[in-house]
Write a structure and sequence with these properties.
Blueprint lengths: L1 H19 L1 H6 L3 H21 L2 H18 L1 H9 L4 H17 L3 H13 L3 H13 L3 H13 L13
Helix pairs in contact: 1-3, 4-5, 4-6, 6-7, 7-8, 8-9
Length: about 160
Amino acid sequence: MLLFSVSAGVPVVLVLGAVTGWSHSVIGAPTWASWVIAALAIFIGLPLAWFSTPLGTRSATNLLLKAYRRDGLEYVEQQYLSKLAPYRAGLQLFNLALALDHAGDQDGALVVYRHAADCGSPPAMVNLAYWLSRRGEEDEAREWLRRAVEAGYTRVVPGAGER
């Protein structure tokens, strides 16, 4: 929500600053520079605000899914995720793996879950453990579950502790 507020709010403030002359008087920017800064803020800020909403997140995942199907995982990681911190890249990869999983591509999902888990995404570690367990690879599945717990993953089981 904070990312959305900042991403949507800054362009509005800069446009108002250019319209009212505030940016010219306060920061000493020429009028043309104020408008260029406002236009750049709109160009960058509003799409960023869109992608920080739930609908925008789905759109980002669909973009990654299309790129994955067209060009493969290595392309997605290089073109879309290489500039992100590893943990954020892991979250994006986790969303991509979920989309593959829901589309019935469990083999592709397993590969992407592994990449996301390697980036430090605890939910990806848990899902990877699930799929490894389903394939009979119990030792590796337990190891990924251990790593997920160490990374701070907690799961509340309904009814746990109630007697």
